[in-house]
């Protein structure tokens, strides 16, 4: 297996219109690993993907003309968390993302939300987001829907493939104007699209086996699983071949890259 740091980089995004990654991970190890994985699987470097860590600074004004597209990573925030349990940082981030997503959806601007994207985009469009369809940390078998087979980013994927995930909340149902692109046995909405260019996935398209093992180590005390099961979860992850979800990131970069 090729080491992750040795993976070739093919630059699609140009420096004057890079992609913007919004991170909600406060932990440096997880946040930096996420950024490396997003760049690697999208086929860009630091010139092609900039990062804002929303746990470390406010979002500020986003000039969409500067960016080819925006990607939102996952993390420990859930829109369905009890309001009293949300930290001031989480409340700020949710408010900033809600305002940004309103503009993105209105303009149909290229966006890919990974895991947390289902909660944030789902809330913005009136989906039912709750804790009825949580999934444990580890591999999940994803099935492409009929609408997914007609979608530019999902059409090239196998009808059934393995991915890595783990989430407390999910979309139980979508409004009629959203296209459900993928599903799984335990979670009815694994991916959806709004308009032509706004996407959200419940699974993590940036995660390979090394990445999921890093997440397990970092988040073993965040309530996703019993901490003493961390090693068995990593062993289970190593038994599955996860190689197809990353094509979504590469396809997103190839489809939306533009000069500024």
TrEMBL record:
GO terms for cellular component: cytosol. Keywords: Ligase. GO terms for molecular function: GMP synthase (glutamine-hydrolyzing) activity. Transmembrane segments: none annotated. CDD domains: GATase1_1. Its EC number is 6.3.5.2. Residues 64-207 form the Glutamine amidotransferase domain. It is an enzyme of class 6 (ligase). NCBIfam families: PRK07567.1 (NF005743). This is GMP synthase [glutamine-hydrolyzing]. It comes from Mycolicibacterium vanbaalenii. The gene is guaA_1.
